[in-house]
Structure formats: structure tokens, C-alpha cells
Write a structure and sequence with these properties.
Elements (H helix, E strand, L loop, with lengths): L1 H26 L5 H24 L8 H26 L4 H35 L4 H25 L4 H31 L3
Length: 196
């Protein structure tokens, strides 16, 4: 199930790339804050689609905590193919630039996709407990995941190659990792209380 979520995340990643290219071509924009907000929205939606199509209706998806695990898996699959495509494009810049981009993508983008997907997964898990409000909870989760994704990209890219941008975006990722750990444990306690 984890491999399936990751694999479908890889397969659906081109949908996000196509949507981002369409936006870029129609509006002649690939650097504004609006473009990065659009990219965050599309990428979070595609990762959710991967989980929705791959595992949500499977009988083995039988615990709320599974939502976080499968969303992280889809996010890692998405990040893997995105990193490969960026590296193919970066090779034209030379070995030094490619190594630098690889390091930043490995640490930054991969973690970003994992934690933003985990945030959405947490809200997908919460919707398990509040069936009557599941759509509202999921919409809130989308909003938070999109904002986290956008804030990371905007912080990193608005600083250019400035070290402050790297430090700020890394600190943001670290804070999100601690938040995900806290939410994961909170979800486990809630499952124990509800005997799930």
C-alpha cells in the first residue's frame, strides 16, 4: 500500500507539471508569488489524488493514522520524480551547479513534500472522527498544506541565493517536522481513546 501510494505519486506528478506549464504560458509568469501559490495548490492536490486513487477505498486503509503515512508516501514519490526532472534540467548548468541543486532539492524539496503531505494527511485522518464535517476538515487541511508549501518556496526563492533564505526555509521545515511529530502522536492517542 505504501509502495502503491508512492508509485501513483510518481505517475501523477506530470499532471502538476502540465498545469504549472499551462499557467506559465498563459500568464507569461513563472516567478511571481501567484505562480508559486498556484504551484503549491496544484502539487498538494495531485498528491492527494494519488492517495485517493491508490489507497483510500482499499480495505487495508483501516486506521486514521494510515492517512498520514500514505500521504507522506505519495509526497515522497512526487518529490522523487520532480527532483529527477529538475536535475536533468540542471545538468546544463555544469557539475558544480548540478551538485548544489541536487543537495538543495534532496534536503529542501523532498522534506517539503513529505511534511506538507503529512499535514494534509493529518486533516484527512481527523475527518475520520468527524464524519459530518469531513469536507470542511479536508478543505482546512488543504489550505494549511498549501500555505506551508507556498511559504517555503516563497521564503527560499525571494532570497535568491542568499544564505538567509536557506536558513529561514530550513528553520521553517524543522518547525514543521516537529509539528508533524506532535500531530502524529496526538493522532495515536486519539485512536487509543476511541479504540481504533
Amino acid at each position: 500500500m505504501i509502495a502503491r501510494a508512492m508509485f501513483v505519486g510518481i505517475l501523477l506528478a506530470p499532471l502538476a507539471i502540465i498545469a504549472e506549464l499551462l499557467y506559465s504560458n498563459v500568464f507569461n509568469d513563472s516567478t511571481s508569488a501567484i505562480f508559486f501559490l498556484w504551484a503549491a495548490l496544484i502539487e498538494e492536490f495531485v498528491k492527494y489524488l494519488a492517495v485517493r486513487w491508490a489507497v483510500i477505498n482499499n480495505p487495508n486503509f483501516d486506521e486514521p493514522i494510515d492517512a498520514m503515512i500514505y500521504m507522506i508516501s505519495a509526497g515522497l514519490g512526487f518529490a522523487a520524480i520532480e527532483n529527477i526532472l529538475v536535475l536533468f534540467h540542471a545538468i546544463q548548468s555544469g557539475a558544480g551547479a548540478t551538485a548544489q541543486i541536487w543537495l538543495l532539492r534532496f534536503t529542501g524539496a523532498t522534506l517539503l513534500h513529505a511534511v506538507s503531505s503529512a499535514l494534509l494527511g493529518y486533516f484527512l485522518a481527523l475527518s475520520w472522527f468527524y464524519d459530518g464535517h469531513s469536507k470542511k476538515i479536508l478543505a482546512l487541511g488543504f489550505g494549511i498544506a498549501i500555505l506551508a508549501h507556498f511559504a517555503f518556496n516563497e521564503t527560499l526563492l525571494s532570497s535568491g541565493s542568499d544564505m538567509i533564505g536557506y536558513v529561514s526555509s530550513s528553520a521553517g521545515l524543522l518547525a514543521l517536522i516537529f509539528l508533524i511529530s506532535f500531530l502524529f502522536n496526538k493522532l495515536k492517542k486519539r485512536m487509543a481513546e476511541n479504540q481504533i
